[in-house]
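Annotated sample (chain length 170).
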Amino acid sequence: MTSEGGEDVYSSSEEADYAEGSGEYPLPSAGELARQRDEYLESLLRLQAEFDNYRKRVDRQQRELVENANATLVKKLLPVLDTADLALAHGGGADVTQVASALFEILSKEGLERIDPEGEHFDPEHHEAVAHEPADGADGPDKPEVSEVLRAGYIWKGRALRPAMVKVRG
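Output written by the structure step:
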């Protein structure tokens, strides 16, 4: 068949067979059908794997976002715990003790741990040395150790949120 411009409209032999009046396209061979099926199946499996990876990535990102938001909130509450510690150190009453312990109890259930390293070896990942005193004679410690805690440090779910401010001996 030709178009008004004289060009051949049907370029493939299958379309030409259809145009010649048979009314049906010839069926592809069994091998061709199997090849197409395999291609479609492979594409489907690849798409499913990509979607699973996408879903896992989004879930992981959302968990990380929530964890970071929680850590930020807890970090903002640390000055409240510090203030309660100072109030207790200066003779705060039973009311201060009750409020401070309730707040710390709630935060510790969610994953907050207090770093109170007095007498332990100095660890720069968890301690911030702000003062130093010499060791006691020849029988001093091999490694520097924490002699006094000036401000408590905190760990949030296994990660140092704020190092303890300490005085180091040795």
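Annotation: Residues 112-170 form a domain with the Nucleotide Exchange Factor Grpe; Chain A, domain 2 fold (CATH 2.30.22.10).
Annotation: The chain has a mean pLDDT of 84.
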